[in-house]
Design brief:
mainly beta; three-stranded antiparallel beta sheet; 5% helix
């Protein structure tokens, strides 16, 4: 998809803007836990047990679970797909956009067709918004250990796909099935 789930569909998808941020999901949950500006209801620090894919630590499958919030024809990306975006600098040279300071609107352009806003994330224990404007955090469908999940993380020129708490709130960029 050209925008994060919950982003304004009328906003230019390649220009940093608060309208591109989208919603924050706790991993495995089909509905958002927070909008770009507010927690929806009460934040849960409990580790979610459902998943977006095969719910296996051994697989990087393109399976879409019943709790996947992406619309029909789309799913949450796999670990390998995020690694491909991150590592393929020949096809996807990085272009950081915006001012890269806290609470400003910035992000990274990968190649000509993928702009990811620096959405920050929601703290796993209380849902506090942290690092917006300085980092981007995007869920994959691959579980880590008992309480973790893999997600794409970037900050300015650096990026990784690593394990984070499932209770954290991160954004979702769906990929075509």
């Amino acid at each position: 998809m050209c925008r994060n789930l919950g982003a304004d569909i009328n906003a230019d998808p390649f220009t940093p803007s608060p309208d591109l941020n989208g919603d924050y999901y706790q991993w495995g949950q089909p509905i958002p836990a927070a909008t770009r500006d507010a927690i929806i209801g009460t934040w849960s620090a409990t580790t979610p047990t459902t998943g977006y894919g095969s719910n296996s630590t051994a697989l990087d499958s393109k399976i879409k679970s019943a709790s996947d919030p992406c619309p029909p024809g789309y799913r949450v990306p796999t670990y390998a797909e995020w690694e491909g975006v991150r590592n393929n600098t020949t096809l996807n040279p990085r272009d950081n956009r915006g001012t890269w300071t806290g609470d400003s609107w910035s992000g990274t352009m990968f190649g000509d067709n993928l702009f990811l806003p620096a959405t920050g994330r929601r703290n796993s224990s209380n849902g506090t918004l942290v690092e917006r404007g300085t980092t981007g955090s995007y869920w994959s469908n691959r579980r880590g250990a008992t309480t973790t999940i893999y997600s794409l993380y970037f900050s300015g020129p650096g990026s990784s796909v690593g394990a984070v708490s499932r209770a954290e709130g991160e954004t979702i960029r769906c990929i075509a099935e």
